[in-house]
Structures are given as structure tokens and as C-alpha cells.
Design brief:
With about 130 residues, this protein is an all-alpha fold. The protein contains 4 helices and no strands. Helices cover about 90% and strands about 0% of the residues. The radius of gyration is 28 Å and the shape is rod-shaped.
């Protein structure tokens, strides 16, 4: 009985470096993927910010001027400009959110998180 336990413990220790190595490789690969996703996310956010600023300047200059020249109240022109720019900014949000799920390293979390039932089932099958 004791030799069987020692043999099992030795087998587990022999497999440990490979198991750790696989998890580290997964972490490295997923960290690269997360880095790329974060970079894309930042680019999309910056593009959204630039579009928002450009739309604001253009809308203030063109729509506001044209509306006021045609006799519109300046307050109506300002509200129109604000609504148009807010809608443009909202249109960018789904694109940015599309990258967020990759930043959380989902495969690494799944691989490193073991449910209690799966853990006992794996241990039971290896010991036999």
C-alpha cells in the first residue's frame, strides 16, 4: 500500500513540470493575444475620440452656421450639433466592446480553474 502511494506520488511529481509548462505556455500565448486586443481597443477608442472631436468641429462650423444663417435660433442649432455628435460616439461603442472579452485571458482562466467535481474525477481515474 505504501509503495503504491509512493509510486503514485512519484508519477504526479514527474508529470508536474509538463503540466506547469503547458499552463505557462498558454498564459504567454494568451497574454500576447490580450496585448494585441488591448492595442486594437486603444486604437478604436482613439479613432472614436478623433471622430467625435472632428464631428464636433465640423458640426459647429457647418451646421451651426447654416442653421443660424437661415434664421434658426442658436440654441436649436447647438442642441442639433450635440445630438448628432453623441449618436456618432455611441456608434463606436460596440466596436470597442468587441475587443474587451479577449483582455480577460479567458482560456487561461478556464485552464487554471478546476471545478471540485472535475478535480476529484481526474484524481480518481489517475490513481486507479
Amino acid at each position: 500500500m505504501l509503495s503504491k502511494l509512493a509510486h503514485t506520488a512519484g508519477a504526479i511529481l514527474d508529470e508536474l513540470p509538463g503540466a506547469v509548462s503547458d499552463r505557462v505556455q498558454l498564459l504567454v500565448l494568451e497574454a500576447r493575444q490580450a496585448g494585441r486586443a488591448a492595442a486594437r481597443f486603444l486604437v478604436v477608442v482613439m479613432v472614436g475620440c478623433l471622430l467625435f472631436a472632428t464631428a464636433w468641429i465640423t458640426a459647429c462650423g457647418a451646421i451651426g452656421y447654416a442653421a443660424i444663417e437661415r434664421g434658426a435660433d442658436w440654441r436649436w442649432a447647438a442642441v442639433t450639433i450635440i445630438v448628432a455628435n453623441v449618436l456618432a460616439a455611441i456608434a463606436v461603442i460596440p466596436v470597442a466592446r468587441g475587443f474587451l472579452h479577449r483582455i480577460a485571458l479567458p482560456a487561461t482562466v478556464r485552464r487554471l480553474t478546476v471545478s471540485p467535481t472535475a478535480s476529484s474525477a481526474e484524481t480518481g481515474s489517475k490513481v486507479r
